[in-house]
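anyone seen this seq b4? input:
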Amino acid sequence: MKTSAYNPSPLEVDFATALTELQKEIEKHLKDNRIVHVESHVKRDNPMVKFSLIDKDGDPHEVVLRIIQIPDKF
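predicted toks r here
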């Protein structure tokens, strides 16, 4: 399927949504950190998912992921 729109593309939106829905699975792989909040912005040009975490010492951290699809190469 050729991508007709990239701002955001359906694939970018699907990835951002999947990351949001998989927060419990992702948390299992984070040593000494717990996800306390997930903020998702899927309507942006490049969708963003921000994870707010607390480490074993109680310190807060944030990880931001931007989803960018590279133009199709057909």
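The chain is about 25% helix and 30% strand. The chain has a mean pLDDT of 93. kinda curious what u guys think
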